[in-house]
From TrEMBL:
It comes from the Bacteria. This is Probable branched-chain-amino-acid aminotransferase. PANTHER family: AMINO-ACID AMINOTRANSFERASE, AMINODEOXYCHORISMATE LYASE. Its cofactor is pyridoxal 5'-phosphate. Keywords: Amino-acid biosynthesis, Branched-chain amino acid biosynthesis, Pyridoxal phosphate. Belongs to the class-IV pyridoxal-phosphate-dependent aminotransferase family. GO terms for biological process: amino acid biosynthetic process; branched-chain amino acid biosynthetic process. Transmembrane segments: none annotated. Its EC number is 2.6.1.42. One of its GO terms (cellular component) is cytosol. The keyword Amino-acid biosynthesis applies. Acts on leucine, isoleucine and valine. GO terms for molecular function: branched-chain-amino-acid transaminase activity. It comes from Neorhizobium galegae bv. officinalis.
Length: 287
């Protein structure tokens, strides 16, 4: 079965899908995106993802490509055509194609929209949950509007590659005063010795993850205390558990940071109980 992508109003074969050579996403990273999980034929937290897309577009004064109902229809259609039951969709909107010029293009230039979908193997995720992952820390070097989900991800790409070359799987950005920001494509959480769940405030300095927001609902349901405050790298290294949240990994245990074990070096019980409850609490939209 060939994969299908949606590009500016058309469903095309994935291998033929293309945008204009002067698309501003390609030339200036002048675009925003969303990644949303699909599990057992259900889109997870679609409303929150589309709300954040609207916010990202608004912050960059970019036009929405279509209304919410039409967009939801197209997303579901892409998932159906690709027969995704477990996987993700990726949606990108850019400021459109125009002769290369840093100024915004002429009023009325249509935005570019692309949507792709792919299946993922749930057993690969299960393996990751069972073993946990190793990470490195790196100095924060991103711009200060990382709260907008733009496709300008070069520092994140370099950080992940550096992690890979160091024998780890991911990287955590630490600011100049030692405060933990977030990982290259996830938010960071710790479980303190007192059993509190701590994550840094998301008003600025990090992307306000949708998984993070839903996890706060999950913690409430499980009777766990969530504290939104900054924490330093030393506190993270001394934590009982450390885990990442993102739409692609949900809740991934971190077992090693800069070659030092987290607690006993094995995934903890809090992250696994959160994972078990996550999909009961999250919004589910049938494909
Ligand atoms: N990344 N922080 C960053 C920098 C991210 O790129 C992401 C998501 C998150 C978590 O957000 P959410 O819970 O809404 O997925 C935090 C996606 C998955 C990606 O770029 O592939």
């Amino acid at each position: 079965m060939s994969r299908i992508a949606y590009v500016n109003g058309q469903y095309v074969r994935h291998s033929d899908a293309a945008v204009h050579v002067e698309d501003r996403g390609f030339q200036f990273a002048d675009g925003v995106y969303e990644v949303c999980e699909v599990r057992h034929g259900m889109i997870v937290d679609l409303t929150r993802h589309l709300n954040r897309l609207d916010r990202s577009l608004g912050e960059l004064r970019m036009a929405a490509p279509m209304g919410r109902a039409a967009l939801t229809f197209v997303i579901r259609e892409v998932l159906r055509r690709n027969r995704v039951k477990n996987g993700i969709f990726y949606l990108q909107v850019t400021r459109g194609a125009a002769r290369r010029d840093h100024y915004f293009p002429a009023e009325g230039t249509p935005p570019t929209i692309t949507i792709t979908a792919k299946s993922t193997d749930p057993s690969a995720a299960a393996k990751k949950y069972a073993s946990g992952i190793k990470v490195i820390t790196l100095p924060e070097n991103r711009w200060d509007r990382v709260d907008i989900k733009t496709v300008g991800l070069l520092p994140n790409v370099l950080a992940k590659q550096q992690a890979k070359e160091a024998g780890a799987q991911d990287a955590i950005f630490i600011d100049r005063s030692g405060i933990v920001m977030e990982a290259a494509s996830s938010n960071v959480w710790i479980v303190t010795r007192d059993g509190e769940l701590v994550t840094r405030p998301a008003e600025h300095g990090i992307l306000k993850g949708i998984t993070r927001t839903t996890l706060i609902d999950v913690a409430k349901k499980l009777g766990l205390k969530v504290v939104e405050r900054e924490f330093k790298a030393e506190e993270m290294l001394a934590a009982r558990e450390v885990f990442f949240t993102s739409a692609t990994g949900i809740c991934v245990p971190i077992v090693q940071i800069d070659n030092k074990p987290v607690a006993n070096g094995h995934p903890g019980t809090v992250s696994s109980s959160i994972r078990d409850t996550f999909f009961d609490v999250a919004e589910k939209t049938a494909i």
